[in-house]
Structure formats: structure tokens, C-alpha cells
Write a structure and sequence with these properties.
Elements lengths: L13 E7 L5 E9 L16 H12 L2 E2 L11 H12 L14 H15 L9 E5 H13 L5 E6 L5 H7 L3 E6 L1 E2 L8 E2 L3 E2 L2 H6 L5 E7 L11 H13 L3 E5 L25 E6 H4 L7 E5 L2 H12 L7 H17 L6 H21 L4 E4 L5 E5 L1 H6 L11 H13 L1 E2 L1 E2 L6 H4 L5 E5 L4 H18 L2
Parallel strand pairs: 3-16, 5-6, 5-10, 8-14, 10-11, 11-12
Antiparallel strand pairs: 1-2, 4-13, 7-9, 12-13, 14-15, 15-18, 17-18
Helix pairs in contact: 1-13, 2-10, 3-10, 4-5, 4-9, 11-15
């Protein structure tokens, strides 16, 4: 967390003073008293800046095609929309509180649905917690399980909330990088070529290690961890008595015949794993903000303590809609009509479309095995135009993205923001695009890229 810092003017507060009049009336004078006490909690130091704000603002100012943020700009499936309509217009009691830890029909279907996948008999009252999105599940997990001085191993590139959530809980992030290996000649680069070094990973475990955070399929890379890779992680977690927080929000979005495996399904891992899921990613409804954590009661009881003393429970109607949507999918699971079959097929086509289009201007895609995203290598641009505007110490990918938004009308996210500070300089030649977009958005992208391609001709 760093050494404590002295209070500054920005960390003090002011307050109005209410004065009593002789007549008994009260009036508020605009007397501002500076608080002598520090206002900002120390755990917020160093994590107040969020790079997403800057890129979202730039995108709106420049009227650019937004391929940066990870959300679909098309409707959820019809059955999910109908489920939400039923939840809003049906039983009026769905306007009221429900069970604190999850609407019972939802926790029951989640227990049934994921129990089969994890090879466990899940108790909906003990093994399932419904949260405000997967973000809420992650925050609850860190607050419940990580304490002052605990080390948390984070595999990078990582979704950018893992580090601040670790710090806010008093823990110390310990990073280990996926590193690319060269692809075969003439073969497109693949996220499967990015691997952990087993010896490096093993070296990160110490007596202070409390948890390891895993994200598969990975954001931003799109890597789907193989069973062999998961077994390596599982072996080390068991050997060192370490918990695993497994973020699996993109588990249904895997491509090219790859298979998602939940690490909790491996021998000896259920007892030490929290599996995080998201209805937003599952049913293309990110604004519903319904997520969940699954795990053994020995862990989940502590998440419930945090949950009941923070938000207490989540909006009922969204949970009801997700419950109906899962009930529909359970009936069709594995069949051609299943959304979990059809959706990844459609998104794989859009992934391939985007990859072909980006190559036209010299961007080199790393083909993802899963998720919403692909990253592209911008090394050629870094060598040809290294002096883009920006601060001298600003990673190149961040300067490139701002240049691209302003000059080419395309929004991406710099990949360096998904790395720890020491590693950012080594991975500042990649940018991330989201391909889970409407076909009209991809056509707008094509128009921007064709114009860009024409400008590149000598």
C-alpha cells in the first residue's frame, strides 16, 4: 500500500455551520471549516484513477466507432427479453425484497445447472450467492477472504479491478505473466501461444499467499486455459494451501472447438475455489448486473457476511428474469437450438470478420480462443511512428489509442492497463478490440479501416 502520506488540501473536507439566533430560529451561515482529519481512507490511495473514463470520454467527443468497451450493442435473446417482461409485469411481489442471498428460483436453478458442470451437489442456500454482477461477486470475495498482509497471485494480463480490490482489502498483489511464444511461420498468432512459465509461477507462492486469481477465458487476451494448465495451477494451490478465485464470466464464449474447464471441477479444488459468473455476459444483458459466486459453504459463509452488511440483496426482477432464462437453457443444453451453442458460433464469425479487417491496415491480431475480445500487435506502427503525442513516460499503446480515436475514428483499449506497473513497458505494443458488436457496427469499422488503408498507400 506504500508509506502513509501526509494530509493534503484535497483530502480535507468542509462543512456548513448551523448557528442559533437569540429568537430561537436557526440559520445556516456559509462558514466553511476545514476538517483537520484526513477525509480519504488510506486504502484508496493510488487507485483513484480509472483509465476507462478517459477513453470513453474521447470516444464520445470524437464520434468514433466504439470497439473498446466490452458490451454487446445488440439486444439480448428474445427469450431473455420475454423473461424480463414477465418479471416486470407479472407477480407484483417481484417489486419487493427477496431472500438476501438470492431470489430462490434463481439460486435453485444455478445450483442445478452448475452442479452438473462442477460435479457437485450444490445446496442453493449454502453454495450459491447472487451479487450485483460478477464485479460484486469479486469485491465480496476479496473483502471476505483477503486481509492485511495477505499475498494474492494475479495472472496478467488481468481484468483491471483485481489489483485495486486486493489493495482495498489490505492484501499485496503478486503478479505472474502469461508470455507469448512465437507462432509458426505464416500461422496467425493465437492466444493459446501465451503461456505461464511453471517455474516462475511456482516461485510466486510463499507462506503469505492467500489466494490466486484466475480468469478463463481471459480478458483481454481471450486465452482459454487448457486442462493441463489448470492442473498445474491446481497442484500449486493444493500444495501451498491457497484459495482460487476463478473468474469465468466468458465460459460460454469459446471458439474453434475449444472447451472451457472450471478449475473447481478438478480433484481437490472444489473445497478451495470460488467460481464467479455473470448473467450479463451469459445472456448479453450487461446492464442487468446479475452475477453470482459458487463455492463450498466454508468459504461462502464469509461472503454472505460481507453481502448482508453491504448491499444486503440485489434487485428482484432481474434475478427472476435470469432464473427463467436459465430454465429455458437447461431444457435445450447441448442442442443446436441452445443459445449457448448458437451465440458463440455467431460471435466466432464476427471475430473472424474483425481479424481480417484489422489486418488490412497492418494490425496483427492475436486470435482469441474465447471471450469478447481480441488484441492486436501494433509493433509495426511503434517502429514507424514512435513519437506520437503524449507524456514521455506514457506507454506507447495509450498514445496510439488516443491518436487512433482522434485521427481514425476507432476506439480500442490499450493492453498495458491490464498489466502491473513493472510489466507495462514490455506489453505496450498491443491494443484490445471488442468484436461482440452488431453487424452494423462492424460495417462502420470496415469503412473507417478502408479509409485508413487508402491513406497508407504511397
Amino acid at each position: 500500500m506504500g508509506a502513509p502520506q501526509k494530509d493534503s488540501a484535497s483530502e480535507t473536507g468542509t462543512q456548513d455551520v448551523v448557528l442559533s439566533c437569540p429568537t430561537g430560529a436557526h440559520h445556516t451561515e456559509a462558514v466553511k471549516l476545514a476538517m483537520a482529519k484526513r477525509v480519504q481512507a488510506r486504502r484508496l490511495t493510488g487507485i483513484d484513477h480509472n483509465p476507462w473514463v478517459e477513453y470513453v470520454r474521447l470516444a464520445s467527443e470524437c464520434d468514433a466507432v466504439n470497439l473498446g468497451q466490452g458490451f454487446p450493442d445488440f439486444p439480448p435473446p428474445d427469450f431473455a427479453l420475454e423473461a424480463f417482461r414477465q418479471a416486470v409485469t407479472g407477480d407484483f411481489m417481484l417489486n419487493q425484497y427477496t431472500r438476501a442471498f438470492g431470489y430462490p428460483p434463481l439460486t435453485e436453478i444455478l445450483a442445478s445447472f452448475f452442479g452438473k458442470l462442477l460435479g457437485q451437489e450444490l445446496d442453493p442456500l449454502k453454495n450459491v450467492l447472487v451479487t450485483v454482477g460478477a464485479y460484486g461477486a469479486l469485491f465480496t470475495a476479496f473483502q471476505a477472504l483477503v486481509e492485511e498482509g495477505d499475498e494474492v497471485i494475479i495472472v496478467e494480463p488481468f481484468f483491471d479491478c483485481y489489483e485495486p480490490m486486493t489493495l482495498m482489502a489490505g492484501g499485496r498483489p503478486v503478479f505472474v505473466s502469461l508470455r507469448p511464444s512465437p507462432s509458426q511461420d505464416k500461422e496467425p498468432d493465437s492466444s493459446s501461444n501465451w503461456c505461464l512459465d511453471p517455474a516462475e509461477l511456482a516461485s510466486k507462492f510463499t507462506a503469505r499467499t492467500k489466494a490466486l486469481v484466475l480468469n478463463t477465458p481471459n480478458n483481454p487476451l481471450g486465452k482459454v486455459f487448457s486442462k493441463a494448465e489448470l492442473e498445474l495451477v491446481a497442484h500449486l494451490c493444493r500444495q501451498h494451501d491457497v484459495l482460487c478465485i476463478s473468474d469465468e464470466v466468458y465460459q460460454w464464449l469459446v471458439y474453434d472447438g475449444h472447451q472451457h474447464t472450471s478449475i473447481a471441477s478438478l480433484p481437490g479444488m472444489w473445497e478451495r475455489t470460488l467460481t464467479i459468473g455473470s448473467a450479463g455476459k451469459t445472456f448479453s444483458a450487461t446492464g442487468w448486473k446479475v452475477g453470482w459466486a459458487l463455492g463450498p459453504d466454508a468459504l461462502m459463509r464469509h461472503l454472505r457476511t460481507v453481502h448482508q452488511n453491504s448491499i444486503f440483496h440485489c434487485p428482484t426482477q432481474g434475478q427472476a428474469a435470469v432464473a427463467l432464462s436459465f430454465e429455458r437453457e437447461l431444457q435445450h443444453l447441448g442442442q443446436p437450438c441452445s443459445y449457448f451453442v448458437q451465440f458463440p458460433q455467431a460471435m466466432q464469425r464476427r471475430r473472424d470478420h474483425m481479424a481480417r479487417s484489422l489486418q488490412a491496415v497492418g494490425l496483427r491480431p492475436v486470435i482469441p480462443q474465447g471471450s469478447y475480445f481480441l488484441i492486436t500487435d501494433i509493433s509495426d506502427f511503434k517502429s514507424k511512428m514512435p513519437d506520437l503525442p503524449g507524456a514521455a513516460d506514457e506507454p506507447y499503446d495509450r498514445r496510439f489509442v488516443k491518436w487512433m480515436i482522434k485521427n481514425k475514428g476507432l476506439v480500442a483499449i490499450p493492453v498495458s492497463i491490464f498489466f502491473s506497473q513493472p510489466q507495462q513497458q514490455h506489453f505496450d505494443h498491443y491494443i484490445r478490440f471488442c468484436f461482440v458488436k452488431d453487424e452494423s457496427t462492424l460495417r462502420a469499422m470496415d469503412e473507417k479501416l478502408q479509409k485508413w488503408k487508402a491513406e497508407l498507400r504511397p
